[in-house]
Amino acid sequence: MSADTAVPVRAPEPRPASGSARVRRVERARAALRRAAPALAFYAAARLTGMATMAAWAWWIGRHPRTLLGHSWDGIWYAGIARHGYGRVLPSPTTPGVVFNDLAFFPLYPGLVHALSAVTPLTVVSSGLVVAWLSAGASAWGIYALGERVFGRVYGRRAATLLVVLWGLLPHAIVQSMAYTEPLMTALAAWALYALVTGRFLWAGALCLLAGLSRPNAVAVAAAVVCSCGLLLWRDRGARGNWRVWAGAALAPLGWTGYVVWAGHRSGGGPLGYFEVQRLWGSRFDFGRDALRFVRHLIVGRDAMAYYGTVAIIAVALVLLALLALERPRPPVALLVYAAVLVVIAVGGSSYFASKPRFLLPAFPLLVPVALGLARARPRTLVTTVAALAGLSFFYGTYLLTVARMPM
Mean per-residue pLDDT for 344-361? Predict the structure, then answer.
């Protein structure tokens, strides 16, 4: 074959230069995951041990661990929405005037569960657990990344790792392994706050928008993003010309407000009808009056152990919020606003007293003072403290799911 009739050979596609932006982003992500690997391993060990402890006791008393984790309390409502969509309204069989409407539950988590069950052989309940477990892992990574970014220069990676471990060993950390929305909200909140402190305002706004579709108290993420962007614009005139800051602040509340308005119209109550849906469930913001009445009841009377555990957790949360505000070096404003709003919502809301620790589960910045204190502690003190917290977490989580007879 002559040269002029040879089949032309296409030149090989040039490979991206090693210094290209895409390659650098991938390399940075891999490096970040490698740094976070020990924290993620500790977190996985904590949660797997907690689930194994609960499962062993559940089998012993004749209850199924999968049902307890994936189809209990609010998990039943999420599964129903994932299967059939919205539209279920049930009057309470025990409390006159209370009406259970599934519009009280935000749509992102059941939407993800529906999508996963539609494209895989998994049932809705199993899909709910998978989404929750993946979200918990993403939460642990986001908490580590945020802790490393904010406190790594002073305390190194040890403080960030401890922050993740402490979050995985909360007394009520079993919720992180259940088919509930707290892991998903925490993941989106942690990465939104990370994007915020690293100057990625569009990412912060977009992640905040998604977080706002996950839970009612996710309004705390929007408050953190909007306040931080507003403070930056007030302090730095140069930032006022950065359209990404304005766009991030504008995107942040859209998810939460969008669902609230839609659910209000769907319920027939207009733009604010969602709050009537919550009121009919027995939930409203009363500035803590109902909580104080219940605490007084616990002091003068007797009730289940979980209620006393709730009082202890709320008290510790209030102390930790004060310590976080006094911490030096001062944490970013976003972390303070986020944690403070979550605490105010949990303490100031009425009814469902035993659920308040769960409402505080996404408030991981409250653990910063403890993590920094343990980062400075002697190894023996550190090991003893973590072991004690692990024992409490595994025992209390097992108690909440297998013994306590109250909504989580």
Answer: 95
Cα–Cα distance measured from residue 363 to residue 346, given in angstroms and rounded to the nearest whole number: 10
Length of the chain: 408
What stretch of H or E contains 394?
helix 379-402
Residue type (1 letter), 156: G
* pTM recorded for the entire structure: 0.93
Asked whether the beta carbons of 42 and 168 are under 8 A apart, the reply is yes
Torsion from C-alpha of 331, 27, 34, 361, nearest 10 degrees: 40
Instruction: Using alpha carbons, select from 175, 172, 85, 174 the residue that is nearest to residue 124.
Output: 85
pLDDT value for 8 = 36
316 neighbors 308 (Cβ within 8 angstroms): no
Rounded to an integer, what distance in angstroms lies between the CA atom of residue 257 and that of residue 239? 26
pLDDT digit string, tens, across residues 307-333: 999 999 999 999 999 999 999 888 999
The set of residues, in sequence order, having a beta carbon less than 8 Å from that of 330 and lying 6+ positions away, is: none
Q: Specify the pLDDT at position 2.
A: 38
Ramachandran angles phi, psi of 90, nearest 5° = -130, 130
H/E stretch holding 89: strand 89-91
Q: What totals of helices (H) and strands (E) does the chain contain, helices first? A: 18, 2
- Local structure of residue 285 (DSSP, 8 states): B
Question: Is the distance from CB of 170 to CB of 217 less than 8 angstroms?
Answer: no
Average pLDDT over residues 182-186: 98
With CA atoms as reference, report the closest residue to 262 among 407, 29, 86.
Answer: 86
Which tokens is 214 given?
């996950």
